[in-house]
Amino acid sequence: MGYKTKLTILILLSVILATIFMVYDSGGHWEYVLPRRGKILLAIVITGAAIAFATVVFQTITNNRILTPSIIGLDSLYMLIQTFVIFTFGSMSIAMTNANLNFVLSAGGMILFSFVFYQLLFREEGHNIYFLLLVGLILGTFFSSLTTFMQVLIDPNEFQSVQNRMFASFNNVNTDLLLISVVSFIVISVYCLRFTKFLDVISLGKDHSINLGIPYNKLIKRMLFVVAILISISTALVGPITFLGLLVANVTYEFLKTYKHSQIIPASIFVSIIALVGGQLIVERVFTFETTLSVIINFIGGVYFLYLLLKERKSW
């Protein structure tokens, strides 16, 4: 089965699931149902595309398929920002009630952190990508500890607001954020198009990339900023979904059996859309909103992560 056939299957599955999501059990109330579900579907597409894109790029530059961008602490920083705002100003402050301001604070904070983080680490020669991952892991743990400390001290009613931010949900997506998210994703995607061919070489490793004339460090820094921006957009839009990227990236690699990022990135985006739309249908029609999509994704992703660890262990 060729690439075009496989991509066509993924596109068809995405369209079928999206159509079912839009029209199933509508009761003929199209004027109410279509705009509401259409905005949720757009949020799902943007979130899935951003996470899949960022994870494939991140796994390529780290040369490791069991890592996700959350390892550098962006998810933990998002929760720290939300908890700090509620701890300091309260859940009814303008920073929490104004969705646009909250989006700017969350995404801006994560992007600023990434900029400072990368500048400090790459300023001196000799620091490689694994040093960055180690420092990111430590900072992520530090952010989580600070978050837990503040959560213990705040009022129980305020903690409920924090808890609502801990799990990604497409049922309460603020539609005012969709336009800025769509524009940001399109700009980042267009910017990355010219680097796609270099990602194929970077996947061979640092030494091979440098020997083949690739400006390795310069490209790695640019790609890390792209990853940070994409994860910031998706997390600030719906909340953290830790294992979605791991799941869709590895499923795409297994399905396509290729190293070409010009094929892997589009396919992973459609796999992500299938996973999210299918999962949202299960949440709405099977569990009747008694759980959230992120819980299902993280459960399946966690099991798949253990499978990958056991699989890699056997190959040692």
Describe the structure.
- This protein is mainly α.
- The protein is built from 14 helices and no strands.
- The protein has helices spanning 3-23, 30-62, 74-89, 94-97, 99-122, 129-153, 156-166, 178-192, 196-202, 206-211, 216-238, 244-256, 261-285, 293-315.
- The longest helix is centred in the N-terminal third of the chain and has 33 residues, at 30-62.
- It is globular, with a radius of gyration of 20 Å.
- The mean pLDDT is 82.
What distance lies between the first and last C-alpha atoms, to the nearest angstrom? 31 Å
Uncertain runs are none
SS-based class: mainly alpha
Tally the helices: 14
How much helix, percentage-wise, in residues?
over 70%
N-to-C SSE series? HHHHHHHHHHHHHH
Q: Tell the overall outline.
A: globular
Q: Could you give the count of β-strands?
A: 0
Instruction: Round the mean pLDDT to the nearest integer and report it.
Output: 82
* Strand portion: under 5%
Radius of gyration: 20 Å
The biggest sheet amounts to: none
Question: How are the SSEs placed, and which strands pair?
Answer:
Elements: H1 3-23, H2 30-62, H3 74-89, H4 94-97, H5 99-122, H6 129-153, H7 156-166, H8 178-192, H9 196-202, H10 206-211, H11 216-238, H12 244-256, H13 261-285, H14 293-315
